[in-house]
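[job 0417] fold request received: M16C subfamily protease
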Amino acid sequence: MQIKEYRKFNEKVYIEKMDNGLSVVVVPKKGYQKTYATLSVRYGSIDTNINGKTYPAGIAHFLEHKMFDKKDYDAMDVFSKYGAGSNAFTSFNKTSYLFSTTDNVHENLTELLDFVQEPYFSDAKVEKEKGIIGQEISMYDDEPGAVLFFKTVQNMFPDTPLNVDIAGTEDSIYKITKQDLYDSYNYFYQPQNMQLTVVGNVVPEDIFKWVSDNQSKKSFNEPKDVKRTTIQSSEIVRETTHYMDVNRPKVALGIKGDSKYNGDIKYELSISLLLQLLLSEGSEIYEKMYNDGIIDDSFGFDFDCEDQFNFAVLAGETEKIDEFIDRISDVLVNFADYISDKSDEFELIKKEEIGQHVSMMNSIEAIANNMSDEDHDFENIYDEIEMIKQLELDDLIRYGKLFLKPDMIVKNKIFPKN
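[job 0417] inference complete; emitting structure tokens
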């Protein structure tokens, strides 16, 4: 058992790897009533290739849906029986199953492990699910915010698995078979490709014993190396325009990052702080664009840095789309000039970011989700606070020059149909 101690925060993170390769991370939080657990699989919507065979887009999300639906019961009903709420989600690069409870942690933890590690698929259930997910896809296709985001991602990563919505398309999901689900499950849902994270008023040794006992009763296939999908560099689509039922035009800029820095936490923190320094509420640039009517409260941005990709999306509603694009593009391309004299503002942004991290430390959900995201020596929310403290303005300029390249910026517009 490995213990990472953070004395400044009076916190400990306990880590143990089971004999079958399953990673287990426990963060005890004395005095908390609730316990939150996630079982995450390093398998997301981009992972559509297994040993040279390409599976239909959306299969990871489809598989997540079907895991709860057993031969003669629904796993959610079992969690409800033991007083827990349960859920699951699929992202580009991960699938997570979770529960939250104030009672019966052992029973709920057992159910979490059992229902994820004991798949059941039938032709009839698969066919029924296609209609359900098809409706979900149709709903997202009509949601302007979702279309704006995913079309922007598609512009950055055409001809890659990121080119398709996480749920797939109506055409792709209708190609999914029971055997496809078993193939994908058997390849990706191996214990050594999964991580269990438990945060709450628990005793780490108890959790490790419960998990060890549970896993020892099961037989697993011989471990195989899991080869994740690599997002190959591709030419970007510089600009697209769409027409939808919207009241006001929407616009997004996407910035495709250099793949050399995928999964680099210092790079991730630096770019995140850089975007905040440039464009967060309270910055000079934000206030000027707001007062000029170029942006409003709908404006926002996000930076995503994973092992397979990294990108940013900046979006909002505006009647002044061309000015939005020109002004923000200028800020991004000439960012160093804008921040070179912003040392005081940078220190303030750092303090705000540290404050947000400290607030997250009071949320067992935030801690668990942060821990389940980390494959890099289990660097986590507590490590990130120290890394943020050590960042200098020069770090933002150095990493910004690696990220904010004019030839990696894409544009996506949505106009009202009329």
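[job 0417] notes: The first strand starts at residue 2 and ends at 6. Residues 123-141 form the longest helix (19 residues).
[job 0417] exit 0
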